[in-house]
C-alpha cells in the first residue's frame, strides 16, 4: 500500500498532536507508511528523535502555508497552493499517496479535494460519511458537512454510495437505507426530501423510506441519508449530548459518599460503556465520490482520535473504496 499523506498543520489542535496521532497509527499498524506534510523544520526535528525503524516509515514533506479554519474555500484554492492541505491532496492526485487525512477547514478541504481530484463519473458532489454508534453496532450517515444543500438527485447519489460502502467495505449484505426527515409519514417534509423519496423508491436499493432522528441509533436502518447542513448539526448534537451525559454521570457519582461507593462498583461497566460511545473511536469521515481517498478528522481531535482517522484512511485504501464506488456506480448506470 502506498503511504498516507497527513496534513499535520490544519485544525484546531497543535501540529504536535497530529504528529503524535500519526506515530500512534504507525505503532498500531506495522505495514503503514506516512507522508507528514507541514513545516519542514518542525517535522525534521521531530523525526530525527525517533527510532530508525519508525523513521523508515515516516517521511516529511514540506509545505510553506497553512489553511486557517476561517479561510474561505475559494481563497484557499487560489492563494494557498503550497498549504499542507493542498500538498497532501496533490500527493494523492500524483499517485504518491493512497489517501489524504486532514483535520482542517471542512469547506476548504471539500473545495480543494473537488478541484484537485474531481468526482467520479455519475457523482455530482462528494459527501462525508462516517459510522455512528447504534444499537446494532453502527449506522453509516452521510452527508456530514461537505454540502450544506443537496438536490434530490444528489441525495439519491449519496444513498447509492452509502449502500456501496456499507456492503463492500463493511460487509452488510443488503444495507437498509433511510432518508432523514421530520416524520416517517409520506406526506411530511419539504419538497427536496419529497422528491428524493420519489427517486429512491424507483431505485433497486433497499430503501425503507423516511426515518427520524432517533432511528440513527435504533438499528432500524444501516445507512441514513441527509444533506450536509442537517447531518453536521446532528453529528455535533450527538457529540454534545455524549459529553453532557458523561459530565452528569461524574457529578452524580461524586455527590455523596454512597454515590462514590456506587461509582467504584459500577466503574468497570461504565468504562466499557464509555469506550463504546467514545467519539474518538469514530473519528475520521471519508469524503466519498471523489477520484481518490480523503478523510476528514475532527478539528479538535487529540492524538488518539487523529490516529483513528488515519486508520480509517488505511482501511478505505486497503478495501479499494474508490474503485468499489466507481465500479458499482458504473454497473448501476448500465443497468438503468
Describe it.
The longest helix has 26 residues, at 228-253. The protein is built from 13 helices and 11 strands. Helix 1 (15-28) packs across helix 12, helix 5 packs parallel to helix 6 (106-117) and helix 7 crosses helix 13 (321-335). The mean pLDDT is 88. It has helices at 15-28, 40-48, 52-55, 73-79, 84-93, 106-117, 152-169, 191-201, 215-218, 228-253, 257-277, 303-318, 321-335; strands spanning 4-7, 34-38, 58-62, 99-102, 127-134, 137-142, 177-180, 207-211, 223-225, 285-288, 293-296. The protein folds into 2 domains: 1-123 and 289-336, Isopropylmalate Dehydrogenase, CATH 3.40.718; 124-281, Isopropylmalate Dehydrogenase (3-Layer(aba) Sandwich), CATH 3.40.718. The chain has an 11-stranded mixed β-sheet with strand order 3-2-1-4-11-10-5-6-9-7-8, sandwiched between helices. It is α/β, with parallel strands linked by helices and 336 residues long.
Key features of this structure:
Isopropylmalate Dehydrogenase, 336 residues, alpha/beta, 13 helices, 11 strands
Query: How confident is the prediction overall: mean pLDDT?
Result: 88
Q: How many distinct folded domains? A: 2
SSE order in H/E notation? EHEHHEHHEHEEHEHEHEHHEEHH
Q: If you consult CATH, what is the topology of the largest domain? A: Isopropylmalate Dehydrogenase
Q: What is the number of beta strands?
A: 11
Shape: globular
Strand order of the largest sheet: 3-2-1-4-11-10-5-6-9-7-8
Q: From the coordinates shown, what is the CATH architecture of the largest domain?
A: 3-Layer(aba) Sandwich
User: Helices and strands: which structural class?
Assistant: alpha/beta
Based on CA atoms alone, the radius of gyration comes out at: 21 Å
Amino acid at each position: 500500500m502506498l503511504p498516507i499523506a497527513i496534513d499535520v498543520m490544519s485544525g484546531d489542535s497543535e501540529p504536535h498532536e497530529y504528529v503524535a496521532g500519526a506515530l500512534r497509527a504507525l505503532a498500531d499498524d506495522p505495514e503503514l507508511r506516512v507522508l507528514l506534510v507541514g513545516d519542514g523544520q518542525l517535522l525534521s526535528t521531530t523525526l530525527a528523535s525517533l527510532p530508525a525503524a519508525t523513521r523508515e516509515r515516516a517521511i516529511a514533506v514540506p509545505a510553506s502555508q497553512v489553511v486557517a479554519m476561517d479561510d474561505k474555500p475559494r481563497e484557499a484554492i487560489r492563494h494557498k497552493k503550497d498549504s499542507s492541505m493542498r500538498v497532501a491532496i496533490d500527493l494523492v492526485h500524483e499517485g504518491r499517496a493512497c489517501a489524504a487525512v486532514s483535520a482542517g477547514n471542512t469547506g476548504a478541504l471539500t473545495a480543494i479535494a473537488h478541484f484537485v481530484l474531481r468526482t467520479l463519473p455519475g457523482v455530482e458532489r462528494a459527501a462525508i460519511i462516517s459510522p455512528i454508534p447504534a444499537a446494532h453496532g453502527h449506522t453509516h450517515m452521510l452527508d456530514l458537512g461537505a454540502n450544506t444543500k443537496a438536490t434530490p438527485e444528489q441525495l439519491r447519489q449519496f444513498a447509492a454510495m452509502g449502500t456501496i460502502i456499507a456492503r463492500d467495505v463493511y460487509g452488510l449484505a443488503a444495507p437498509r437505507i433511510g432518508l432523514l426527515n421530520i416524520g416517517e409519514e409520506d406526506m411530511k417534509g419539504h419538497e427536496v426530501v419529497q422528491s428524493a423519496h420519489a427517486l429512491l423508491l424507483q431505485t433497486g436499493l433497499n430503501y425503507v423510506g423516511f426515518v427520524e432522528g432517533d432511528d440513527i441509533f435504533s438499528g432500524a436502518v444501516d445507512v441514513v441519508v441527509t444533506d450536509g447542513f442537517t447531518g453536521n448539526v446532528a453529528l455535533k448534537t450527538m457529540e454534545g449530548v455524549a459529553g453532557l451525559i458523561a459530565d452528569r454521570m461524574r457529578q452524580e457519582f461524586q455527590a455523596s459518599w454512597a454515590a462514590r461507593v456506587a461509582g467504584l462498583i459500577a466503574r468497570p461497566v461504565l468504562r466499557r460503556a464509555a469506550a463504546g460511545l467514545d467519539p474518538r473511536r469514530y473519528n475520521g469521515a471519508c469524503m466519498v465520490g471523489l477520484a481518490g481517498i480523503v478523510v476528514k478528522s475532527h478539528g479538535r481531535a487529540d492524538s488518539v482520535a487523529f490516529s483513528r482517522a488515519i486508520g480509517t484512511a488505511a482501511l478505505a485504501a486497503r478495501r479499494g473504496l474508490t474503485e468499489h464506488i466507481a465500479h458499482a456506480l458504473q454497473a448501476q448506470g448500465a443497468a438503468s
